[in-house]
TrEMBL record:
It comes from the Bacteria. Signal peptide: none annotated. Keywords: Antiviral defense. Gene3D superfamilies: 3.30.70.2660. This is Type I-B CRISPR-associated protein Cas5. Coiled coil: none annotated. GO terms for biological process: defense response to virus; maintenance of CRISPR repeat elements. InterPro entries: CRISPR-assoc_prot_Cas5, CRISPR-assoc_prot_Cas5_N.
Length: 255
């Protein structure tokens, strides 16, 4: 991978829903946006159409990591669905006029833990094309994305905050035990993580990449510490080390 800049930004919002991919009608949510959701978020902000970004934001060209900055909680709640297909504007057809009534479906929502104002996910992005990164940085700094950001569903509006664009980072293999701030691919571990007091490590199987027809082409198991800011472990995969503002962090890209 060429040593191009690493862009760091936050995705924030009051609540989110990151639908699990086991079925196309799952009501369950991941606690954090999977890589495919982040790729779609970036593509939308940059103005890609939904079937145009599979290559540019694919695993080979674009490298994405994510850190959960605010503890999250899950809430199951019923929502009312109305039919929005077919003859929805015809009276009595059961569409927007609600003549056939709503369909109630339970959905799992992600909220910040009590005491926190909003969700906050930190996203780290680099790309093999320096000009592509420059375009992303301009979008983030301008605060004017082509399509608005949201947290998984259009019903969950969000916002992004540009944190840093830095070349003060490196990528390589490390032999020592490190505190990893990002969600961690299970395949990256060379041994069991350190289980200190209160550590709650959760494993989620998530999608990693879609092709241009939005078919799943890669998935993987990701770990995160529900009770803390990092997972301390020894890794066999490459680790990035980055310094920005007052922070110095270690992370692993989702792949």
């Amino acid at each position: 991978m060429p040593q191009n800049p690493l862009i760091v930004f936050d995705l924030c919002g009051a609540y989110g829903m990151f639908r699990k991919f086991y079925t196309n009608s799952s009501s369950l949510s991941y606690p954090f946006p999977p890589r495919t959701t982040v790729a779609g978020l970036i593509a939308g902000m940059m103005g890609y159409e939904r079937d145009e970004y599979a290559e540019d934001l694919g695993l080979e060209r674009c490298h994405i990591a994510l850190s959960v900055r605010v503890p999250v909680r899950r809430v199951m709640q019923q929502v009312n669905y109305l039919m929005t297909e077919g003859h929805v504007w015809t009276g009595g057809a059961g569409g927007f006029d609600g003549s056939k009534g709503p369909i109630q479906v339970p959905l799992e929502w992600i909220f910040p833990e009590v005491g926190y104002r909003e969700l906050r996910y930190r996203i780290y992005v680099t790309h093999e094309d320096r000009r592509w990164l420059e375009s992303l940085r301009e979008v983030l700094e301008s605060g004017a994305p082509v399509y608005p950001p949201y947290l998984g569903m259009s019903e969950c509006p969000g916002r992004v905050e540009h944190v840093a664009s830095t070349e003060d980072w490196s990528l390589g293999r490390r032999g020592e035990e490190l505190p990893i701030s990002t969600v961690l691919p299970a395949s990256a571990l060379s041994g069991p993580p350190r289980l200190g007091a209160g550590t709650q490590i959760v494993k989620e199987r998530t999608p990693l990449a879609l092709d241009e027809r939005r078919r799943l082409i890669a998935a993987g198991d990701l770990l995160y510490n529900r009770a803390g800011p990092h997972i301390t472990a020894r890794l066999e995969s490459e680790v990035f080390e980055v310094s920005y503002q007052e922070s110095h962090e270690y992370g692993v890209f989702m792949q």
